[in-house]
Design brief:
The chain is of the alpha/beta class. It folds into two domains: 55-119 and 292-390 and 409-431, Rossmann fold (3-Layer(aba) Sandwich), CATH 3.40.50.740; 121-287, 3-Layer(aba) Sandwich (Dimethylsulfoxide Reductase, domain 2). 37% of the residues lie in helices and 19% in strands. It has 18 helices and 21 strands. The strands form five sheets. The chain has a nine-stranded mixed sheet with strand order 5-4-19-18-17-6-7-15-16, with helices on one face. α4 (95-108) runs parallel beside α18 and α9 (207-220) crosses α10 (233-245). The longest helix is centred in the C-terminal third of the chain and has 15 residues, at 417-431.
């Protein structure tokens, strides 16, 4: 009789395919069906163990189950008939699949966009203007003695970020939590702020003013106002001194900064603040990317087109103009006649007006799981879970590439994202 231990294959250094932290120290054991996970957070564990939960198992056309070839033929028909198809999502799949999707969008003459346009798009626009002085998470773990979380709550959004990269791990030149100062800047107390040495509560929509005041204090030593954005000037002066006197500092920022009043100017000012600090010490800044491979799409799209997201191929060449070529702007102007959603759920997150228009155009969805978008799809194609049922490449939030591993087989008849896109691309090329 085979023992319990010998039934299970042990996979060390497994990369978690949930959030942009891409923790690569997980240990997975599997016998091909059952999966056991060590070192993962609650969110990562739920993703890895979701093999049998809420899965789409059969292709559908208008709610009717069909075989895969028929679903692909229908998807190709919709894409070729459309004058300006919109491709959206791609942040929860591999770089290899993203590459094929961009080729498909270019071949058809559509627009391709990822979830960056509704999360860290403002960060990318700011980086276009002023660059970004940043580091890897490994450098931060080993060297940072001042960590600032601005407009983000890693305890909820990236549960192992603090324990693995930024606050608690012992680094080569840092003394774990004891040797680090932690600052949280937010509009309200959070689980993360409870762990901070300093919590600065700013008024909603006043981040730009607070960042500008910090720059003024760092460059002149003075602030003419007694309060800025609801924060006492003396408290800002204390923070400025803390930033100037640290050995190695880092600002992690989230959507509390990208989506408040000021938009990408907030990020531009934060980056400029870090550049000012270079006169005194080493400092960096990094966006807290959400989906596990949203950074990967920005990288791959830049290789392929020269632009990171919201790329329009309708002119016969890549054209990039966020505010006009991003998904929400296109849907709001009713400027598309078909939509291809790949590993995303815009029906759950986009404004009601754009979702209402999504329902009026032919909608193709490729996803391993049921979602609000999948439920309104005209063509629904199930796919394998990247990083669980198929391997591939992904980029961590610091733009370090890592390799996702396969641990179990997908359900019978379910293809990978890359294979589905390649079959669609082949059919398109045949018909063109």
């Amino acid at each position: 009789m085979i023992s319990e231990m010998s039934r299970f294959r042990r996979i060390p250094n497994y990369v978690c395919p949930f959030c942009g932290a891409l923790c690569d120290d997980l240990v997975v054991e599997t016998d091909g069906k059952e999966i056991r996970v060590e070192n993962a957070c609650v969110l990562g564990t739920a993703k890895i163990l979701a093999k049998h939960h809420n899965r789409v198992l059969k292709p559908q056309i208008n709610g009717r189950e069909v075989d895969l070839d028929e679903a692909i033929d229908k998807a190709v028909e919709i894409l070729l008939k459309a004058k300006k198809p919109l491709f959206y999502g791609f942040s929860s799949t591999t770089c290899e699949a993203q590459e094929v999707a961009i080729e498909l969008a270019e071949k058809i003459g559509g627009v391709i966009d990822c979830t960056s346009s509704v999360c860290h798009g403002p960060s990318i626009l700011a980086i276009h203007e002023v660059g970004i002085p940043s580091y890897t998470l490994g450098e931060i773990k080993n060297r940072a003695d001042l960590v600032i979380f601005w407009g983000c709550n890693p305890m909820h959004a990236h549960p192992r970020h603090m324990s693995r990269y930024s606050v608690f791990p012992r680094g080569r030149f840092s003394q774990s939590r004891i040797g680090r100062k932690i600052v949280v800047v937010d509009v309200r107390p959070t689980e993360s702020s409870k762990l901070a040495d300093v919590f600065i509560r700013v008024e909603p929509g006043s981040d730009y003013e607070v960042l500008n005041a910090l720059r003024t204090i760092i460059n002149t030593g003075e602030c003419r106002l007694k309060k800025v954005g609801g924060v006492d000037a003396e408290k800002l002066k204390e923070l400025a001194e803390m930033m100037k006197n640290c050995k190695f500092g880092i600002i992690f920022f989230g959507m509390g900064l990208t989506h408040s009043r000021g938009n990408y100017w907030n990020i531009s000012e934060a980056i400029s603040l870090v550049k000012d600090l270079y006169r005194f010490t080493k400092f960096g800044i990094m966006p807290m990317r959400g989906h596990y491979n949203v950074s990967g799409f920005n990288e791959v799209c830049t290789w392929e087109t020269g632009f990171p997201f919201a790329v329009d191929f309708t002119k016969g060449y890549p054209w990039y103009n966020p505010g006009e070529t991003d998904s929400n702007s296109i849907l709001d102007k009713r400027d598309t006649d078909a939509m291809f959603v790949f590993g995303g759920d815009p029906a759950a997150h986009f404004p009601k007006a754009t979702v209402d228009y999504m329902k009026k155009v032919p909608l193709i969805v490729v996803d391993p799981f049921w979602s609000l978008t999948a439920k309104i799809a005209d063509v629904l194609i199930p796919s394998a879970i990247a990083g669980v049922e198929v391997e591939g490449s992904a980029y961590r939030m610091d733009s370090v590439p890592l390799r996702l591993k396969k641990i179990v087989d997908p359900p019978e008849g379910i293809l990978s994202d890359e294979e589905i896109l390649k079959r669609i691309l082949e059919k398109v090329e045949e018909k063109l």
